[in-house]
Structures are given as structure tokens and as C-alpha cells.
Design goal:
By secondary structure, this protein is of the alpha+beta class. It has a single domain, classed as Umud Fragment, subunit A. 26% of the residues lie in helices and 28% in strands. A six-stranded antiparallel sheet has the order 1-2-6-3-4-5. The longest helix has 21 residues. It is globular, with a radius of gyration of 16 Å.
Length: 149
Amino acid sequence: MSIHRKHIDELRNISVSLLSEGKTIRIKAHGYSMYPTIKPGMVIMIEPIRLKGLPQKGEIVAINKDKGIVVHRIVEIIDEGGKKKYIARGDSNPFPDAPVTIDMIPGRVTGLEGFARLPAEFSKKPNYFFNRWRVIMIHIAGRFKNLKK
């Protein structure tokens, strides 16, 4: 196991542990999967999922995955024989994630640091195609900037 992987696992375990103890955590967002709602570098607040009950469609939640904590929006809730499964998707991802159970959702995003109120994008239905296109353009522009240096 690489030292990087070990650090990610330790941070995820600490974060999940704090959430299970009823504490709200702050983490810095990385990546563009929730763009433009959550941009890389934004600090997001995550509260324990149990504080306000089960997640609802449209809410942004923290999902405990092998690669760390992933923050995505719940797009569908499936009832399979009395057991709920949640399907989440990043606001700029082309496809939804695999279904997860509630035990894999330790928290929900409740705010963004530096914002008195949550941005309008936070609660509206995302335009996945347009958001994905914007992220691709950001990456292409970044490559052109690097070529000029």
C-alpha cells in the first residue's frame, strides 16, 4: 500500500468516525464531479446523516467509498424488499454511481464555508450535460495555459 493511499484511508476513517460520534466536519473539495455547485477548493460542511433522518432525493451526501469520501447528490431511492438503496451522481458526471446502502452514507452536506446562504445551484436539479461540457472546457483551457508556459 502506498503512503498516499494509507493517508487517504486514515483521513476517511477519521472523518467517518467523527460523523458517527455526532460531530460535523469540514473538508476541502477536490475534483469537478459536483461542479458548479461545489468547486475544487471550496470547504464544505458535512453533518452526521442521523441528525435529520434518512437522505432525500436531491440532497447532497457524503458517501464512504474505497477511494475516500465522495460527495454527490441523491438522484434516486430504490426500495428492494424493504431495504433502501440510494443512487447518487455528481452534478457534472455523465453517469450515476452504483447504488449504496445507508450504512455507506455517514453524512449530508449542509453548507459551504464563506457563504451566508447556500448558492441556488445547491438545491436545484443539475443540467448534467451542460455541467459536464463546462468541466471539459475548463480542463482544455488549463492544458492550453500549460502549453503557453
